[in-house]
Amino acid sequence: MTQRQIIQVFEQYQQSRMQFVQAVADLAARPQNIEILKNAGVMSMLRPLLLDVVPSIQQTAALALGRLADHSDDLATAVVKEDILPQLVHSLVSQNRFCKKAAAFVLRAVAKHSPELSQAVVDCGGVDALVLCLGEFDPGVKEAAAWALGYIARHNALLSQSVVDAGAVPLLVLCLLEPVMALKRIAASTLSDISKHTPELAETVVENGAIAHLALMILNPDAKLKRQVLSALSQISKHSVSLAEMVIDAEIFPAAIACLKDPDEYVKKNVTTLMREVVKHTPELSQVIVNCGAMGAVIDNLGNCCGNLRLPGIMMLGYVAAHNESLAMAVILSKGVSQLALCLSEEHEPHIKAAAAWSIGQIGHHTPEHAKAVATANLLTKLLELYMDANSSEDLQAKSKKALKSILQKCTYLPGLEPLLYDVPSNILKHVVCQFSKVLPNDNKARRLFVTSGGLKKLQEIDAEPGSPLQEHINAINSCFPEEIVRYYSPGYSEVLLERLEKYQPA
């Protein structure tokens, strides 16, 4: 056998290995093939090929493993059990950029499924190796590494801390300065995933100068980048007053409000979420956002979106209104109540309705004037319907009840209260009747209207327990009217009159 023939044997073997990994990688891209590949023992076949002498075979084997692990928790667990992770970490440290990208992809595919699988990546030194890749020259390697670190960090504070401890944050902040758009996006996304768990983690991100760099990208034309930037700023702001103030000090408002005009729905959702996370802390922070003209813009946006895209805006209005009377009045004057009424009637998801009910309660519970704004929008009866509807979720019923009670205790607008005298549970009715008992003694016109509208008649029909607060309120109202009028509207009085008529003998 000649030398050429001997070499040809090796070449054929290499070609066969290449054809095999390429075919498996292609098959793994289609979900319907995954189970067959798994049953054929593909994992144990790919494992030795990760250490192949030919880098392109290593890279394609890693790509195939990544696609398999990405598909399901079971296959990702198989990657761990086959002891493949240490080989991938070795590739991250010592191989070429193509192999590094493929290895980082597998680690990401494993880590995404659960905290336990992410912990396996941490335990085999994966995080340290990925952080080293953040310092590589090639932006594709940096992107793959940042993406994998984000999937590890997003699960919980402990995993996020392991990413921070490996020194990822300053390198991720530097990635924000890179010209490659995809790398900027992933870096912002990973910083968001790190920041979301605890104030301490968010402070680490802030201490590395992230806010200033994120703030500069708010008006970037790339919608996907803006989504991630606004998300990161939201996750930082949510933890404490001091962190929210740092975001405000970066002067991202009023520029960020322009994002509510963005054609991308998730840019609009994320900027509203950012405002929600800022305003919830203090009246002063709320006032800063209101002074920027955010209120009208958020309310307009609520009219142009639906479903979960509405949720941050609904909650933002509630947080602003909760702080004090003047901020709640700002929501009313910006037509916030009518927009929340629309959200309450148009939305079908219980959690969105519950958020709207909560916000309406925050607006209406301050003064009679605030309560009147809610009552004139016919929201008291709507809240009652949601509370009494057996199909409403427990949370929706609880929030509707709480909002209704808090508004009723301030409401002196009797036309809004009167419909609540009919078919209402006693725990709500006592609050309604209590408000009538406060207003009627001092308002002659209201007393007359109460009689002519049928309110007094309905009051006499209420079966209240003797000595109960409800009965005391009824007695207080009855004492505002002449005794014969109260008798006239009492149940059974017409029969008494007929009986007297029968007994009456004309002279």
Please provide a written account of the structure.
With 507 residues, the protein is mainly α. Helices cover 74% and strands 0% of the residues. The chain is built from 34 helices and no strands. It has helices at 3-28, 34-39, 42-49, 55-71, 73-81, 85-94, 97-111, 115-123, 126-134, 139-153, 157-165, 168-175, 181-195, 199-207, 210-216, 223-237, 241-249, 265-279, 283-291, 294-303, 311-323, 325-333, 336-346, 350-364, 368-376, 379-388, 394-408, 414-417, 426-439, 444-452, 455-461, 469-478, 483-488, 493-503. The longest helix is centred in the N-terminal third of the chain and has 26 residues, at 3-28. The termini are far apart. The mean pLDDT is 88.
